[in-house]
Give the backbone structure.
Amino acid sequence: MPFEISKELVRSDFIKKIEELSGEEISACYHCGKCAAGCPSVDTMDLLPNQIIRAIQLGDIEVLKTSNTPWICASCYMCYVRCPRGIDLCSIMEAVRQMTLRENLDHIDIRVYTDELATLPPIAVVSAQRKLSS
Amino acid sequence: MKEIIYYPGCTLKNTAKNFEDSAIACAEALGFKLRELEDWYCCGTVYSLTSDDLMHHIATVRNLLRVQEEGEERLTTLCAMCYNTIKRSSKRINENEDDREKINSFMYEEENDYQGNVDIIHYLEILRDEIGFDKIKEKVEKPLKNLKLAPYYGCLLLRPLEVAIDNPDSPSILEDLITVMGAEVVYFPFKNECCGAYETVSEVDFVVERARNIIGNAIRNEADALLVSCPLCAFNLDNRQKNVSLKYPDFEGIPVLYFTEALALALGLDPEVCHFDLHYQSIEELVKEIEQ
């Protein structure tokens, strides 16, 4: 998708909001790709973890809202351990998820999975609801 | 007998009863007692990562308050999710007076305020730092000879650094335990990779691939069984082997054990604490071999 970079978007409140929620400095990332190289779930993601940061740096909210990457990230912290800039990418992913969840838009509806719910460990059900629904 | 307050969490009373029973039995055999925290709450299972979200730390703080009210300053857990969530929440709340004040004022119906003095340690840390692997070695009655065990740490015991129980990149605590139990350690590169965690609810295929990669690699490195410390890892790597077999009919699995189950067998305790029926991949053959 072509995307026009604009001064307004790059300086928008949206980036400040993500920084505030995550406690991380978005401009600190220089896209070395160590996070993507270490991420065990990257082959299921439609955008690389650092491409999520790039979208935030450019203020591309649309791409963030449609990407599956923040929903696949289970905060395993492999990226954080390997980041030469010490960026906690898991908190950034959480901030992007919260952007959607705080509009009362759920990523999953737990009732869809009734066939399996009884056999799943309670921690799986509780954490999926905590991270993927509002 | 030395006592420590213990937080079980929901899953140890449910699909991971074998984890709890074997851990309690091992503790007693090693000379310490796990006293279950009274009136405990769900820990929340996942640590809330947004800076403005204090609400999701309240359940944890209530648990810490219960420990404080029992006059103790330490709490131990077995489940890696409980450990990570409570440890991270307690660090944030213990070190941040503003957050603590806000949460205390929210919990105004509680008789006492939480003072920020309770620390969390994992059961494995007790084995390493307080019992000592040398002492465990002395108590081993049935060494797990001829058994090759692959240690699987997952994420939550090792990352992030501030809550890690061992070196996050190159841990050795499970390897050391496997060695003193008399088994052979299998080194495999997937030992600290994510199992897919709660994605197992909605992204089964993704978790199936994770399980196939992790188990497959352990098998290629000649492991007889995988040793885990988290009930969600156990589900994704043991029960999900059923889904892996459906997708890849030539897949051959291996049993998955909690480290406490292997320890119980090595200490010569009753194998019943391992609840055979809670395993997808049968551990009966393995147990028979050890018992002989």
Q: What stands out?
A: The longest helix of chain A spans residues 89-101.
